[in-house]
Amino acid sequence: xxxxxxxxxxxxxxxxxxxxxxxxxxxxxxxxxxxxxxxxxxxxxxxxxxxxxxxxxxxxxxxxxxxxxxxxxxxxxxxxxxxxxxxxxxxxx
Amino acid sequence: xxxxxxxxxxxxxxxxxxxxxxxxxxxxxxxxxxxxxxxxxxxxxxxxxxxxxxxxxxxxxxxxxxxxxxxxxxxxxxxxxxxxxxxxxxxxxxxxxxxxxxxxxxxxxxxxxxxxxxxxxxxxxxxxxxxxxxxxxxxxxxxxxxxxxxxxxxxxxxxxxxxxxxxxxxxxxxxxxxxxxxxxxxxxxxxxxxxxxxxxxxxxxxxxxxxxxxxxxxxxxxxxxxxxxxxxxxxxxxxxxxxxxxxxxxxxxxxxxxxxxxxxxxxxxxxxxxxxxxxxxxxxxxxxxxxxxxxxxxxxxxxxxxxxxxxxxxxxxxxxxxxxxxxxxxxxxxxxxxxxxxxxxxxxxxxxxxxxxxxxxxxxxxxxxxxxxxxxxxxxxxxxxxxxxxxxxxxxxxxxxxxxxxxxx
Lengths: 93, 409
What we know:
The structure holds two protein chains of two kinds. By secondary structure, chain A is an alpha+beta fold. In chain A, 17% of the residues lie in helices and 25% in strands. Chain A contains two helices and five strands. Chain A has helices at residues 29-39, 43-47; strands spanning 3-7, 21-25, 58-62, 65-66, 82-87. In chain A, strands 2-1-5-3-4 form a five-stranded mixed sheet, covered by helices on one side. Chain A starts with a strand and ends in a 6-residue tail after the last strand. In chain B, strand 10 (231-235), helix 10 (240-254) and strand 11 form a beta-alpha-beta unit. Chain B folds into two domains: 80-106 and 213-384, Rossmann fold; 110-209, Rossmann fold (3-Layer(aba) Sandwich). Chain B is built from 15 helices and 13 strands.
């Protein structure tokens, strides 16, 4: 199982005891969020809606690449990967 | 006096006080400003608006600041041009252009959003303004920070047009050029914003910033003689303006300032960056992000934050989405310039080119009242037309030389 660095956005830091970066474990993005839920209960319902779909306004990046350009939640992780969880941001017209 | 009651999540409805926050703590949905429309309705009339100076603050009650504005006082109220010449070419008998290529002070509609954002940032007590920008926002943030006596940090993608970079640097902000696309800059800035306590206009000030766009829609309705048009063709990048124009018409209707709103909203994108129009054409309710590759850099956003809502507005109003190739964009810029004498940037070339396609598809009818949104200035994107225009004829200052060539001009 891969161990990765996960950057936690401000609104979720209440669940991680104020930590802006935590370790996550899992072979895919989805597994990694499952493992975070066991360490930091409550985090999953913030990332996923009631139907288990990732919330529309959350963007997840693996090593700076949007997972929608990779294999989505099935994107495979390897040791040392950097994960960012970032709300959508306005810009342009 | 303020008519702002607080903020509300557009997704889950959770309410928040008026603070520099932009996403719902629970579901990450975007926050919107809540207004006391009953109170606004009691004071805001057509007569009151018409009695005020010709700038965006004539709609003061609907712009989310508490006190009187202190910066950006002359922004907005740009011409609504009746475009008979362009209309004849396109086959539209009732065509108007909302011309923000001459918006004060930095020649794009961004002066509206930045005026709202900087005034609000001052009210929050910030001394530093920042933004992630495709260029126009950078120009406007740097200019307004200068006039407000505030510091500014501007983050841009590395491949912007020269005029947009120089047109920012002249105001002496800190400019940071990022090796990556605008979407990379945006992602990066959200991490910067979490560490540095600045007023990032398109991040933590976003709910207030976005509502500055509404003035573009209010002006269209007022300048048409207090009514909403049948069609509006809007350039789409992050998809904010398109939703705010529609919101503006509906607010005016709800306040009793205009009649029914039956406006169809049309989204215009570049073919090289068309996540929103591709979704509309495919009948999808949400977009798939893309990697932008277009000369229309001001709208080259592959991951539009409000894309979901932009698609929704287009679908709900019975509009449509179309896109334009680089060649069509340049031809759109040239067509607008030679028919109406208006030189717009690439995004304006996109809306003109898309309007042409929509007429050909029968989606814009000849006698309907159509407004094409022109949001930026052509002098900022000179590179786009370089090489596609006729070069000047060079001669000696002799009458005989001119007589020899003038019939061939």
